[in-house]
Write a structure and sequence with these properties.
The complex is a heterodimer.
Chain A lengths: L21 H11 L7 H15 L3 H13 L3 H13 L7 H13 L3 H13 L7 H13 L3 H13 L7 H13 L3 H13 L7 H13 L3 H13 L7 H13 L5 H9 L4 H13 L11
Helix pairs in contact in A: 2-3, 3-4, 4-5, 5-6, 6-7, 7-8, 8-9, 9-10, 10-11, 11-12, 12-13, 13-14, 13-15
Chain B lengths: L10 H13 L4 H9 L2 H4 L2 H24 L6 E9 L3 E8 L7 E9 L5 E8 L2 E2 H29 L8
Antiparallel strand pairs in B: 1-2, 2-3, 3-4, 4-5
Chain lengths: 292, 164
């Protein structure tokens, strides 16, 4: 069992007096007035842990979550696993992360199943094993976790831990893309462009590139820009191309720089200004599906 | 480096801000190509693109998590010295309330127009790029370039702590 020596003490400054947390005080008042059933106390512990975690006070987060995790709370087990995995406030210990995630995963926690699957894929904290990776990712994918569906699809693409099958790969990637996962949307765009595991369709390819681009996926933005330039699956528009190249560069896609400079010569100064303004005003929407 | 101390922002947002801040300062193409070693030439254009994008994501994620966690601490530049013709080493320290400060050396290169980009990070005098190069070489030998790409995909695809 981890003791306090496991914690790297870095947040507590000497002489600081603990200040009562308003959320907790209100909860206590509620209990005293009989408004709140007592069992919400344990929920408050989890939330207090989350609040501390968000502020970078990992020692307090650990102290709030650890007793809950020992009692079998799968959310606390998952988060403690993350703290060990990332070395957040604790000495990084990936096999301890796997131990905690396994407890949560056995209770059906999909994020824990996903992370264990990836640990087997990368060989972090466990011996690298593609079959185990597939088996854990499938459990999470069956629970509709988009990132796992996408990861599982890629396993079918490469033939890692399963027999190579572009069609099954395309089915899993589609599930994740339809749930709003940007990487899956980008990948599905490429599949429709190349006919990988599904019939080629240039129009549909552009639609999926657009969905990922709108979420801020830099490579999808670059692809969409190029399609506006060539008129592939979309009506030609150098102004739109120019705007999407600007956004792709802003997102870290350096390859788009040359392409942007090339388009610039095709535009009038007014069109260029318009595209620059459009790029400036552009904001990625906060979509619930983005997290996958 | 004000945002490091901005505890009002949720941790994930703090990390995302640091990622954006760092993104423009790394020369990922130079680092990524060096780290992949001789496999770079054998890789297809599609593999190179996949690899570079996942490698940058992995590096940004790693450093954003390291730095983003130090909500209470001071991050300061303690030293800078030239290295060879076009490089320099910038030494930073993250002071901790208890224990010695965490030091890192950032090797930067003049990429023209007096613009410097990070090409390596030294921790305890060990080059991260050199360490990764030998690690990646072993993976490519065993599982091919696709295996390395999948390994990176796994490393950037995990879920972090959940609010509920």
């Amino acid at each position: 069992m981890p003791g306090p020596y496991d914690i790297i003490r870095r947040q507590r400054k000497p002489g600081r007096v603990p200040v009562p947390r308003p959320a907790l005080t209100i909860a206590m008042l509620g209990i005293m007035l009989g408004l709140v059933p007592l069992r919400t106390v344990s929920a408050a512990d989890f939330n207090a842990g989350w609040q501390a975690y968000e502020q970078g006070d990992f020692l307090r987060a650990f102290n709030e979550w650890q007793p809950l995790a020992e009692k079998g709370d799968k959310r606390a087990q998952f988060n403690i696993g993350v703290m060990y995995d990332e070395g957040k406030g604790l000495r990084q210990d990936r096999s301890k992360a796997i131990d905690w995630w396994t407890k949560a995963a056995d209770q059906g926690d999909p994020e824990a199943q996903h992370n264990i699957g990836l640990a087997y894929l990368a060989g972090t904290g466990v011996s690298q094993n593609y079959e185990q990776a597939v088996s854990w990712l499938r459990k999470a994918a069956d629970q509709d976790l988009a990132r796992s569906q996408y990861a599982l699809g890629r396993m079918y693409d490469y033939g890692f831990g399963v027999e190579k099958d572009p069609e099954i790969a395309a089915q899993w990637v589609r599930e994740a893309a339809e749930a709003g996962f940007d990487k899956a949307q980008y990948n599905l765009g490429k599949r429709y462009r190349d006919g990988l595991g599904l019939p080629k369709d240039s129009m549909v390819a552009t639609q999926w590139f657009r969905k990922a681009a709108v979420q801020g996926h830099a490579r999808a933005q670059q692809h969409l820009a190029t399609r506006y330039l060539t008129g592939d699956g979309v009506e030609k528009s150098p102004t739109q191309a120019y705007m999407w190249y600007i956004l792709a560069i802003r997102g870290g896609n350096k390859a788009a720089q040359k392409q942007k400079d090339a388009v610039a010569t095709e535009l009038t100064p007014a069109q260029r200004l318009q595209a620059e303004q459009m790029a400036k005003d552009w904001r990625p929407p906060t979509l619930p599906g983005k997290k996958g | 480096m004000k945002l490091l101390a901005d505890k009002q922002l949720p941790l994930a947002q703090r990390e995302a801000k640091i990622r954006r801040l760092l993104r423009g300062n790394f020369d990922f193409r130079t680092i990524g190509q060096f780290v992949l070693g001789r496999s770079w030439r054998q890789a297809t254009p599609e593999q190179r693109a996949d690899y570079l994008s996942l490698f940058s994501e992995f590096v940004l994620r790693t450093y954003a998590r390291r730095i983003g966690g130090y909500a209470n601490d001071a991050f300061e530049i303690t030293d800078a010295s030239p290295l060879g013709q076009s490089d320099a080493i910038v030494v930073t320290a993250i002071a901790q309330p208890a224990g010695p400060s965490i030091r890192a050396g950032w090797r930067v290169r003049n990429v023209g127009n007096n613009d410097y980009k990070i090409i390596d990070v030294m921790v305890e005098k060990v080059s991260m790029a050199a360490t990764q190069r030998s690690e990646y070489d072993a993976i490519v030998r065993q599982r091919g370039v696709d295996g390395l790409i999948e390994m990176l995909r796994a490393k950037v695809g995990s879920y972090s702590a959940q609010p509920s």
